[in-house]
Q: What sequence folds into this?
């Protein structure tokens, strides 16, 4: 890497100028900021102890020495305590030629010490279909898997299905009361949609009961607790945990409907899992661990028989782990799941892709597990992401106002179809080929629009903006890729091949050098995205590269260039841009159509 070469040259310069040895940690070289002229910047301040001079004069002396000794540096400037070094075009051309010969652009992203990393994403409840919030969750999780895998880590994709609890009993009770034997087949509804319908029905009836009770003069809290529908749901939960055969049979039937529906959605979205855990199983393991910790006096039992963890010494609160009736709470299954996963895979890290409303929950989970003696709990990482909303505001699953994932995927494909047909560039394609391209464009628009946003931030998803073929969108990047593929198809028709032997000695224009510099940033961007768990860095890199290439394409001819060396160089440059875009978008889970 040029940074390492420059560090060596800087060390030699300091030794020659100031007759002293300098340690590597004092030589800080980084890419020059965009608003300054240069390619690499040396932070001069740590070296002033040797020069005994001003930052400006020290930088000037080191710059002059390096230019004399190292021809790859063609110029420099000093801004206060920063020495900005300019690299000669010949070096960039040579770098590009080496890059063009690479078969896999992701191999250079591999870390020296790979780890075993579990990534948990999706985490649906079986009382409703997947919605827009789940889409962001799944896309972030799956992209993290691909990014971390590209860096050489062994990554296991996991899902925890929340298939038990009071929310499940709500759907079950409503179906039992009003379903009249309705099934996905009889209703011609996806199973997850059917079960979600009864969850909404429960909430409407429950809300009505609460309002009636409040009219009699009792408080809202008392009304919520004493409503007959909620009492029945709680009774059903107790029966389920006791293994009541009728309740378990109903639970199994409705969950089976939901799983079939989930699988369809996951397939459409292009995500999958290596192992799926179920809360109905892991909560039992969690309860065993909790009870064992009581005996070891790590936890304590209250007068009402509920079980608690005292986390005040960790700066947290008292945390309920088992209710007074013996039923488990949400964190109980998370304890069981974490222990099972570590037993299964012996992970170094376990990344939970869960919204930021659960920040405190995961602080407590790590603290409880460490209190129980599980040292590996230090490797639990909450990938906390912001909420996703629509322009009209928040979604509410209890009121049935969520944006269904299946509907949104279908809408994106239809919008992609309408826009593509208006452009009229697919007229000679067969219908099935067109449909495949529409699918790639629609999903590409959806995935990119969500992943380009910093995961930590809340975001507003606007379907109309996401499908635009101009601007910072998935279709714009896909179109750039397809444009390059079109260039190569025309080259083949003209009998032109990108013979790299003709490129030797070619002189590149500044815009071509700028493209090469941008291509060089790919590996660093992937490494940074992996270290910071941020697919957004890769998404926005794709846009910057696509935008830069389109400006180049607009300003310079490729196949019409009369000089064979320049023509072949531009063809090769276009080819590398297309391969980098394809690799980068792959990390986001986005497919690239060959034609649009």
A:
């Amino acid at each position: 890497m040029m940074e390492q070469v420059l560090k060596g040259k800087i060390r030699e310069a300091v030794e020659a100028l100031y007759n002293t040895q300098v340690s590597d940690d004092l030589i800080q070289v980084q890419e020059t900021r965009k608003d300054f002229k240069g390619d690499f910047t040396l932070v001069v301040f740590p070296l002033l102890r040797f020069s005994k001079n001003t930052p400006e004069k020290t930088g000037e002396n080191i710059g002059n020495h390096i230019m004399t000794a190292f021809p790859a540096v063609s110029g420099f400037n000093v801004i206060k305590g920063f020495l900005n070094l300019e690299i000669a075009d010949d070096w960039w051309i040579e770098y590009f030629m080496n890059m063009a010969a690479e078969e896999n652009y992701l191999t250079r992203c591999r870390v020296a010490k790979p780890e075993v990393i579990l990534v948990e994403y999706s985490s649906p409840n079986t009382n409703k279909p997947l919605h827009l919030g789940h889409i962001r969750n799944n896309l972030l999780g799956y992209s993290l898997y691909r990014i971390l895998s590209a860096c050489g880590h062994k990554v296991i994709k996991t899902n925890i299905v929340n298939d038990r609890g009071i929310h499940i009993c709500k759907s079950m009770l409503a179906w039992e009361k009003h379903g009249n034997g309705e099934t996905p087949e009889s209703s011609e509804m996806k199973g997850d949609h059917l079960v979600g319908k009864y969850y909404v029905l429960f909430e409407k009836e429950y809300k009505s009961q609460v309002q009636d009770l409040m009219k009699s003069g009792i408080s809202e809290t008392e009304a919520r607790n004493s409503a007959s529908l909620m009492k029945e749901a709680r009774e059903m939960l107790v029966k389920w945990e006791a293994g009541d055969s009728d309740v378990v049979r109903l639970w199994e039937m409705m969950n089976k409907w939901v799983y079939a529906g989930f699988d369809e959605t996951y397939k459409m979205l292009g995500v999958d899992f290596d192992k799926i855990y179920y809360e109905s199983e892991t909560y039992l393991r969690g309860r065993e661990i909790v009870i064992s910790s009581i005996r070891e006096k790590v936890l304590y039992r209250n007068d009402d028989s509920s079980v608690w963890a005292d986390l005040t010494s960790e700066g947290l609160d008292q945390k309920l782990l088992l209710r007074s009736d013996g039923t488990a709470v949400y964190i109980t299954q998370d304890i069981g799941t974490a222990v099972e996963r570590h037993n299964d895979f012996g992970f170094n890290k376990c990344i939970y892709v869960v919204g930021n409303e659960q920040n405190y929950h995961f602080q407590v989970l790590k603290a409880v597990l460490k209190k129980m003696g599980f040292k590996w709990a230090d490797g639990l990482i909450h990938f906390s992401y912001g909420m996703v909303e629509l322009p009209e505001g928040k979604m509410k699953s209890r009121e049935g106002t969520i944006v269904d994932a299946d509907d949104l995927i279908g809408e994106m494909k239809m919008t992609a179809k309408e826009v593509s047909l208006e452009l009229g560039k697919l007229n000679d394609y067969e219908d099935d080929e067109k449909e495949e391209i529409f699918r790639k464009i629609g999903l590409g628009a959806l995935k990119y629009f969500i992943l380009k946003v910093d995961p930590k931030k809340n975001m507003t998803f606007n379907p109309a903006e996401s499908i635009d073929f101009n601007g910072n969108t998935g279709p714009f990047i896909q179109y750039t890729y397809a444009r390059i593929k079109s260039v190569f198809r025309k080259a083949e028709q003209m009998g032109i091949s990108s013979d790299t032997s003709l490129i030797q000695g070619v002189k590149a224009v500044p815009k071509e050098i700028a493209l090469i510099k941008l291509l060089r940033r790919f590996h660093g961007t992937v490494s940074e995205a992996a270290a910071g768990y941020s697919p957004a860095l890769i998404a926005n890199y794709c846009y910057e590269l696509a935008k830069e290439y389109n400006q180049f394409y607009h300003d310079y001819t490729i196949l019409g260039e009369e000089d064979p060396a320049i023509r072949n160089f531009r063809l090769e440059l276009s080819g590398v841009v297309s391969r980098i875009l394809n690799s980068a978008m792959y990390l986001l889970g986005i497919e690239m159509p060959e034609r649009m």
User: Anything to note?
Assistant: The chain has three domains: 2-87, 121-399, 405-587. The longest strand covers residues 154-161. The two ends are 37 Å apart (CA to CA).
